[in-house]
Each structure stands twice: as structure tokens, then as C-alpha cells.
Write a structure and sequence with these properties.
Length: about 80
């Protein structure tokens, strides 16, 4: 299992949903803190229970951008 690195925003979301799962926070309180709807907080909670921490990582996390120049081309310019 690989280590999952989250951005500070994703980490904040993870910590709050983790607290909801542990019943230290309510869904309503988490919705206010994350500025999301209660329905979306329930979705995040369900996804976290099924797939773990990786749910909070952005989908394009490890992909290269298509706009980046190749090093050879960059040196030529």
C-alpha cells in the first residue's frame, strides 16, 4: 500500500470526515466547517468508509500536464 500525500485542503477535509466517522462531530457541524451541504458530507463519509483516505486526493494528482515542454525542446529554445 502506497503512502497517500494530501494537500493541506484535502487533509483538512479528511480530518473532519474522520471525526464524523468517529462520532466526534455531527454531519451538520462538518457541513458548516467545510462549507458543503449535508448531503455531500454524507457522500464523502460513505466514500471514505468504502475506499479510505485516497478518496480525498484529487483525481489528476500524479498526471503530467499536457502543456509542459519537453526538456530537449526547452533547451533548444
Amino acid at each position: 500500500m502506497r503512502k497517500i500525500n494530501l494537500t493541506p485542503t484535502e487533509e483538512h477535509k479528511y480530518q473532519i470526515i474522520k471525526a464524523v466517522v468517529a462520532k466526534r462531530k455531527t454531519i451538520k457541524r462538518a457541513a458548516v466547517e467545510l462549507q458543503l451541504t449535508e448531503r455531500h458530507v454524507r457522500r464523502l463519509k460513505q466514500a471514505y468508509l468504502l475506499n479510505g483516505k485516497q478518496v480525498f486526493q484529487h483525481g489528476n494528482h500524479r498526471l503530467k500536464t499536457h502543456q509542459k515542454f519537453d526538456i530537449k525542446c526547452k533547451n533548444k529554445i
